[in-house]
Design brief:
The protein is built from 26 helices and 24 strands. The chain is of the alpha+beta class and 797 residues long. A hairpin with an 8-residue loop joins strand 1 and strand 2. The relative contact order is 0.12.
């Protein structure tokens, strides 16, 4: 019996190739899209999952409650806090501190390169996190000063195939002994590095030893290992008690974050090493898109199955007359439906295998196919395919099979209200999803365009950023600038302590005329006299730093508009602000405000602009160079040549500032691209289904069209007659989709500190696009029927 059903199912697929291709292709594309999105979403949710103790690892954060701070949550804490917590709280069994060193120059023999990322940390790093050590001691790896652990990749760059253990790596004036080699961090680790340096102070380095036990500022990343998985609300209040016990500031309130939340729920956190973080809300949006696309494909499949089944009504009637019972007919329809879903699923997996490497490259992701080999995933996919096949085949199976042979053979089923209403409802669902996704795509790209074109308060075009690594290079910065200015294609140079787009440091301050009992904190950066004009920043009042004013180097500052708003100063120029200059509260240096600078976004626009002051310093570690892009290749070659002449022992590195800012929004850009790609797929699936339904409708009304043609009906009137039903359904879908899309995308936009508004034009364009697609798709089929020979249409069977 089963073999007979299977033969009939395959025979029907071959007989009705057009509908078979539409059903299989539409469902396969939808399932493939769902699989691909699921793999990308799983990748993000799997971050840091390689750590066996992940449920017990927490990160220490700080809530900055001082006046002037808008982004309150930061990823750094007191250097002395983590070991103090470990000593005082029995719930905490281990701790580790990490200090980020960035890219540092490394030299072995004639090999001169920079590390991709260097951390200074403790041996407990390997006791808490499960990074694999390939060679070297199993314990106490970083217990000695001036020792390092290299990743496998960095070790090969420096030493080739030679054993690096015990060998020396030079960095500037310091020498480090290689203590161990570890595997490269997994791609789903939020900590990205290729060298770990011991945090143990060198002999005689009392200042660093004092720093590690200090509670005078927040500057290190701290992680704790709990004795078991706990509710953090029971531990967090105790952290403040530990900080207070060690004379920590009242406005710095420690808090905790689960390791599992670091990658997904850190969008509002500043001062952290988590550059590849994403927003959990975006993942939920993508997961929703996956569900909608799969639902769209399933609805499209069910619609085509239902529509095509009506054409087999007489076959069912004849089989009943021949003695077939209802259970046999139900089994036949269900099996045919399941065969199509299985074929579609196999094709979908093949598409996913082919497309994943391509999309990984486009989205800069690392999703893996082996996720599909998980038994739970395989069982889930098999169950979904089976259920979908049963649902799609259930309507024709149970409804069509219950009709009496006489009724079915008269063709009454095809005109029943239930069949028509079902197909209409499915079409509305399809286009509701498609229109909502089109609106969403428009909103996402509008926000991305807003991010990329927003006036940041400075110029990011034509700007090259060059880091000075090491004191030697910093000491030669003025010489390097002077040499660059000899080239007419160099339009300006300026140095700063922080490259634009990077997080700035913060410090407390005491403003003139304000009570000393109020805790104020602002962001701080140091620049030379050329940085402001090179970056195209605007001085609103007063003046810029100048070599004509020797006092600028010791007692002058610039402040931004947000600082003026915070302090409610009407005339800021000439005001005094005191900054801490020593370990005692009374150690302070007075600075005079000499200029008011227009607000600029020194962090990403995920965060609002905060109060800022700029101090003068001629020896900074970041150089901004403005070039004439008309001769960019020659200018870049000149800059590199000049660098190697002045700093032969330091690797030359540069980046374009606009490209750096693009990287800051890599996650959002990938999300926008992904959103648009799968929206197009959803629309394709909807059109595919509409194409099949239009062909079915034209075939069902073939005789009606022939009669109208004989009676003189024009082509235009027939096209209007047959397409208006579909247009009505699309308009209903538009009415449903518009408020739904507006609400959901408004929630998404709320995640940005600076955001664009939703435009009615987006909704109009999506609605018009849906109508045009419907008209074109339907009329292509109807036009063929209208122009067919009426004699053939009216010919009796």
């Amino acid at each position: 019996m089963f073999n007979n059903y299977l033969k009939i199912a395959l025979r029907n697929l071959a007989k009705n190739r057009f509908y078979s291709v539409l059903k299989i292709a539409g469902l396969a594309v939808g399932l493939a899209a769902g699989i691909l999105i699921a793999l990308f979403v799983y990748e993000d949710f799997s971050y840091d999952g390689f750590n066996e103790k992940k449920d017990r690892i927490v990160r220490v954060l700080t809530i900055d409650q001082a006046e002037g701070v808008k982004s309150k949550l930061v990823g750094v804490s007191y250097p002395g806090l983590a070991p103090a917590i470990r000593r005082d709280l029995p719930e905490v069994v281990n701790s580790v501190r990490i200090s980020e060193q960035g890219r540092v120059p490394l030299k072995v023999g004639e090999t001169l390169i920079s590390s991709e990322g260097t951390f200074r940390t403790e041996s407990s790093f390997f006791e808490i996190f499960d990074y694999k050590v390939l060679s070297g001691p199993s314990k106490g790896i970083l217990d000695e000063p001036q020792t390092v652990v290299l990743t496998e990749t960095l070790a090969k760059k420096l030493f080739g195939n030679a054993d690096p253990l015990g060998k020396t790596v030079q960095s500037g004036t310091q020498n480090f002994k290689v203590k161990a080699v570890m595997a490269d961090p997994p791609t789903n680790s939020h900590l990205r590095f290729d060298m770990l340096r011991s945090m143990v102070p060198a002999p005689g380095d009392s200042s660093y030893a004092q720093f590690l036990n200090s509670f005078s500022g927040i500057s290190v990343y701290s992680y704790l290992l709990l004795d078991r998985a706990r509710d953090l609300n029971t531990i967090i209040p105790k952290l403040k008690q530990v900080a207070d016990k060690n004379q920590g500031y009242a406005f710095f309130v420690p808090t905790l974050q689960y390791l599992n939340d670091v990658h997904l729920n850190s969008g509002d956190i500043l001062f952290e090493h988590n550059t590849n973080k994403t927003d959990a809300a975006n993942l939920y949006v993508l997961a929703t898109i996956a569900l909608l696309v799969v639902l769209l494909a399933a609805v499209n499949f069910m619609n085509l199955v239902t529509a095509h089944a009506t054409g087999r009504a007489k076959e069912v009637g004849l089989r009943k007359v021949a003695g077939a019972v209802r259970t046999q007919l139900i089994g036949q329809h269900l099996l045919e439906s399941i065969v199509v879903t299985v074929l579609s699923a196999l094709l979908a997996i093949g598409l996913a295998v082919v497309m994943l490497p391509v999309l990984n490259n486009i989205y800069q992701r690392n999703a893996r196919l082996d996720t599909l080999l998980n038994p739970v995933v395989l069982l889930g996919m098999a169950a979904f395919v089976l259920v979908l096949g049963l649902l799609a085949g259930s309507y024709p199976a149970f409804v069509l099979s219950k009709f009496r042979p006489v009724t079915v053979l008269k063709g009454a089923f095809k005109n029943t209200d239930s069949g028509i209403r079902l197909r209409q409802s499915l079409v509305v669902i399809q286009f509701t999803i498609s229109i909502a996704l089109m609106v969403g795509t428009g909103v996402v790209f509008r926000q991305m365009r807003y991010i990329q074109s927003k006036d940041l308060g400075f110029s990011r075009e034509q700007i090259i950023s060059i880091p000075f690594k090491g004191q030697a290079a910093i000491g030669r910065a003025r010489t390097f600038q002077a040499e660059l200015k000899q080239n007419p294609n160099i339009l300006g140079t300026g140095t700063t302590t922080n490259k634009m787009g990077q997080q700035l440091g913060r410090t407390t301050f005491v403003p003139e005329g304000k009570p000393t009992t109020t805790n104020y904190i602002a962001s701080i950066m140091a620049v030379d006299e050329s940085f402001v004009p090179t970056m195209g920043m605007k001085i609103l009042k007063g003046r810029n730093f100048s070599l004509d004013f020797p006092a600028d180097s010791a007692s002058s500052m610039l402040i931004n508009e947000e600082m003026v708003k915070l302090l409610n100063w009407k005339e800021p120029v000439g005001k005094i602000i005191r900054l801490p200059s020593g370990p005692n509260p009374t150690d302070a240096t007075a600075y005079t405000v000499v200029g008011l600078i227009k607000d600029f976004n020194f962090a990403t626009i995920r965060h609002k602009v905060e109060p800022l002051f700029m101090l003068y310093n001629k020896n900074n570690n970041q150089l901004a160079v403005k070039i004439n892009t008309a001769n960019a290749p020659e200018t870049l070659a000149f800059i590199e040549k000049t660098w190697k002449q002045i700093n032969p022992e330091t690797p030359y590195e540069y980046s374009f500032l606009d490209a750096d800012f693009g990287k800051l929004y890599r996650s959002e850009q990938a999300f926008a691209t992904m959103f648009s790609h799968f929206t197009v797929l959803a629309l394709f699936i909807a059109v595919l289904g509409l194409f099949g339904l239009a062909a079915f409708t034209a075939e069902q009304r073939r005789k009606e069209i022939g009669i109208r043609r004989v009676l003189g009906a024009e082509t235009g009137s027939l096209l209007y007659l047959l397409s208006r039903e579909f247009i009505k359904l699309v308009l209903v879908a538009f009415v449903i989709a518009s408020p739904l899309a507006w609400y959901l995308m408004n929630r998404w936009l709320d995640g940005f500190a600076y955001r664009t508004d939703q435009s009615a034009i987006l909704f109009v364009v999506a609605g018009v696009a849906a109508v045009l697609v419907t008209l074109i798709t339907v009329n292509l089929q109807v036009f063929k029927a209208v122009n067919a020979n009426p004699v053939k249409s009216l010919r009796s069977e």
